[in-house]
């Protein structure tokens, strides 16, 4: 089987960081072996890349990993990656996300006579 459980929170980033996502490992102790932390981050980033509302990238959110539970036999990188994606799928919609309009930089060059 696969077993991985994570405990943490999702928080919005400041207006200056709205185009990024952030993952923070604030775990203490060995409830989650350190070898599985990159898999948890990867699951979070995968979930942010695909999004849940319209299939577009999620930005402006931080995942703060605080604790979790592992099993000596049944825990794996896959289990923790899926746990992270499942947490995003479950709790992100509860944060009342907003679909942002596209923001683009446009440079227009026109002859001087206009």
Write the layout of secondary structure elements.
Blueprint: E1 5-12, E2 21-25, H1 37-50, E3 61-69, H2 77-91
Parallel strand pairs: 2-3
Antiparallel strand pairs: 1-3
Strand content: 15-25%
Gyration radius over CA: 18 Å
Give the overall shape: elongated
Secondary structure: helix percent? 25-40%
Structural class: alpha+beta
Number of strands: 3
Across the major sheet, the strand order is: 1-3-2
The unreliable regions are none
Count of DSSP helices? 2
Sketch the major β-sheet. Answer: 3 strands, mixed
How would you spell out the order of helices and strands?
A: EEHEH
Cα(first) to Cα(last) distance is 70 Å
The overall pLDDT average reads 90
Structure description:
It is a single chain. With 114 residues, the chain is of the alpha+beta class. The chain is built from 2 helices and 3 strands. It has a 3-stranded mixed sheet with strand order 1-3-2, with helices on one face. Helix 1 packs across helix 2. The chain starts with a strand and ends in a 23-residue tail after the last helix.
